[in-house]
Design brief:
It is a single chain. The longest helix is centred in the first third of the chain and has 30 residues. The chain is mainly alpha-helical. It has 18 helices and no strands. It starts with 25 loop residues before the first helix and ends with a helix. Helix 1 runs antiparallel to helix 7 and helix 11 packs across helix 16.
């Protein structure tokens, strides 16, 4: 089999020697952290208030109808993730990042002035496309810059920025909704997020694809597998990648349930809109902050144990929320859910970087993120249908059980991957 790579993937000459690592690239890395914070804030502005808008303004009753916006978001984001990775390999990262921000421009205006629920669904389809392009690309660009030694740390910082911003934006939109009404005031923030993210991406972010080529090595480039082969490896053929993909799907399955059902659970318990906003912020904020530590921890102790334990901690947090009736217990469950998710989220991305050749890493990340973000749609559909049929508590317990089983799959099927990148480099030499 020929070892040649397509021309657009061959290492390119650059004006100066490229250095991998966070210290060598800290300015560009910090800029991408800031950009990803604006990406996360675009999702956060919805989390505390869209279920309330569905019930109070559009008079939706069925849980499956209310959660339809998450289904639309999840499907559009998942499909966009799939092509974003491949396009990033083919056309470069920066162009895909800018295209994602352009897709986000209409979203806050559609949410402000939507005359029907279908407009909300359309806005979330655009938001999903934007998130698939922007978040996927910032992940890939940080992996490019960090190199193998700091991959977990880089992913922890990236996901911290995104999900801490989700929590902060949820808290801000909940406060604005309580003070000024559900619409349009909370979505003014979205206009600022889009403008800042787009301007920074166009004017300051630099292309990072050459860093991936540099890591792959000019001396012995690997043949690029077909997209079908990459899809098969990531989905079922490779036990490490397929274990990672199912864990990512289930992780976002429970997040889709939390996004749609938790505000309704909190409201049914008699909590006020500001309290619901605080609870909606706790989970992603804890998730975000803890990733500063869990990503780096995975570089030291390995990936597999953190993933397994994280899925089981998430299951415990979900179960506690199912049992709770008071704010303090809801908050405790949200903290556990955030901690467990932080143990899993950056570690899954770092594990992919461990086992995949840099030449097709972006494509593999795209397939993984396809399955991971389909979890939003699966979680919203499953929990909505079960809630309508058997009640909200049963839906929450079903998701908790699936989360526990997902951790068990990783424990049985996945190997430790932390040293795979070093082994691959040694074999190439």
């Amino acid at each position: 089999m020929s070892e040649a790579v397509p021309r657009n993937l061959a290492p390119r000459p650059v004006k100066h020697a490229l250095q991998l690592g966070l210290k060598a690239n800290w300015r560009q890395f910090a800029l991408l952290v800031l950009v990803n914070a604006f990406v996360g804030a675009m999702v956060g502005m919805e989390r505390a208030i869209l279920p309330a808008i569905a019930e109070q303004e559009f008079r939706l009753v069925a849980h499956s109808a209310i959660l339809a916006f998450i289904v639309v978001f999840g499907v559009s984001k998942a499909l966009t993730n799939y092509v974003a990775g491949r396009f990033s390999d083919a056309f470069g990262r920066k162009a895909i990042l800018v295209a994602g921000w352009l897709c986000a421009v209409p979203v806050p205006f559609m949410l402000m002035w939507a005359p029907s629920w279908n407009w909300i669904l359309a806005a979330n389809a655009l938001l999903g496309i934007s998130q698939g392009l922007t978040w996927s690309t910032t992940v890939i660009m940080k992996i490019d810059l960090a190199g193998p030694a700091n991959r977990g740390t880089a992913m922890g910082i990236n996901e911290f920025a995104g999900y801490f911003a989700v929590g902060a934006a949820a808290l801000a939109s909940g406060w604005l909704a309580a003070r000024y009404g559900l619409r349009p005031a909370p979505f003014y923030l979205g206009v600022a997020y889009v403008v800042l993210g787009l301007v920074l991406s166009v004017a300051a972010v630099r292309e990072t694809r050459d860093y991936a080529h540099h890591e792959a090595g000019a001396a012995a480039p690997a043949a690029l597998p077909s997209q079908r082969e990459i899809f098969a490896r990531t989905t079922w053929r490779d036990p490490d990648l397929s274990s990672i993909s199912q864990a990512g799907l289930v992780n976002n399955l429970n997040d889709g349930m939390a996004w749609g059902l938790f505000p309704l659970i909190f409201a049914a318990a008699g909590l006020s809109l500001p309290q619901i906003g605080v609870l909606a912020a706790i989970y992603p904020a804890v998730w975000g902050v803890c990733q500063l530590f869990t990503g780096a921890l995975s570089d030291r102790i390995g990936r597999k144990g953190l993933i397994v334990a994280g899925m089981w901690v998430q299951a415990l947090g979900i179960g506690l929320i199912a049992l709770a009736t008071a704010f303090a217990w809801f908050a405790s469950g949200a903290v556990l859910l955030g901690v467990g998710t932080a143990m899993v989220y950056p570690t899954l991305l770092a594990a992919i970087g461990d086992v995949v050749n840099p030449a097709w890493r972006a494509s593999t990340v795209g397939v993984y993120r396809l399955w991971r973000d389909l979890g939003y749609a699966v979680g919203a559909l499953l929990s909505g249908l079960v809630a309508d049929r058997f009640g909200v508590p049963v839906a929450v317990w079903v998701v908790a059980a699936l989360t526990f089983l997902s951790g068990l799959v990783v424990a049985v099927r996945m190997r430790e991957t932390r040293h795979a990148g070093k082994e691959r480099a040694t074999a190439r030499r």
